[in-house]
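Hi there,

I know you've been waiting on this one. I reran it after we fixed the sequence typo, so this is the corrected version. Both the input and the resulting structure follow.
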Amino acid sequence: MNYKFADRMSHIPPSFVREILKVTESPEIISFAGGLPHPVSFPVEKIKKASHDVLSRYGKEVLQYSTTEGHLPLREYIAGRYASQGLRIDADEILITNGSQQCLDLVGKVFLDKNDRVLLEKPTYLAAIQSFSLYEPIFKSVPLEDDGPDMDYLEDILLQNKIKLYYAIPNFQNPTGISYSLEKRKKIAGLLSEGDTVLVEDNPYGDIRFSGTDIPPIKSFHEEGILFGSFSKIVSPGMRLGWIVAEEEIMEKLVIAKQASDLHSNYFTQRVVCQFLEDNDLKDHISTIKKSYYEQCQLMLSLMDEYFPEGVTYTRPEGGMFLWVTLPSGISSRELFDLALKDKVAFVPGEAFYAEGEVDNTFRLNFSNSNNEKIEEGIKRLARAIKKLMI
């Protein structure tokens, strides 16, 4: 049959990381490619107990349909966490989603028409490129510096273009690991308050700060902004629970869009996560994750300092799960990937993280999903491959 697919499907790239993960499934390969939390961080026994308790106490209720907005006590818990951080959010301003990936899709549905302009970081989260591409926007990109976007460039692009959405990851950005400074967050809030551009602030990694000082979200200084959150990095990615924070006028449209997608997020999972949060101190759980990730990140950086050749630079994140490597000009990370894979070590070449103007000499490393032995051996192998290309 000659299928006639919608035109929009020709504009959507496949998930580059998902394709790479297929290649790296072999247990022989040391993979720094996926953005995966470490399985040792999953609270298996506590989730098991929460599941048992929820089914025992509320069995028929939790297996029924529920409201689109999500389980109210769970939304109240999220609002309470924001309050402890100095951000006043009402539970009615929170929509529970199927992971933060659905947040991207819903915002795209609600805001984007074909040829609308979306401003992204350069580089940016590759799944955001994929998700927004479904709505056929025109992408613009603002270069990142060590402490956030190039502010002169950002101001110019906002003045010269009718930007509908600005998608930003201010904390431990995926893929670079950098964080926006407090000064730049305030300046961005000021710039956006002068126009109609909607800030979409994604914060899946904000809880995983293992050094430095916490910085308030941009939304603290710009109430109109949309804010994403997720339980994937602090409880479990497999449970697929995230949320959107937005004001009433936007929330009304998001709820309608979600109803058209899936009616509501998995209600049983919401109840299990809520029970887990009621029974346990989330701060203690997160502190365990942060300790582990700090040690893994520092180990990877120390090995890179020792084994990577001169001319290779990389970020030094204060949290999250990633760091970003820049090779000397003219050295291709895609060629490096092919060479490194022969030595059974993998990463994500940087080209996947650019919506426009690909940069071929960068790549992303994930430090959170490998033990110390794999990090040590993998970095040594990667260093050998880099040296071969630089000869």
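Quick highlight: The chain has twelve helices and 14 strands.

Best,
R. S.
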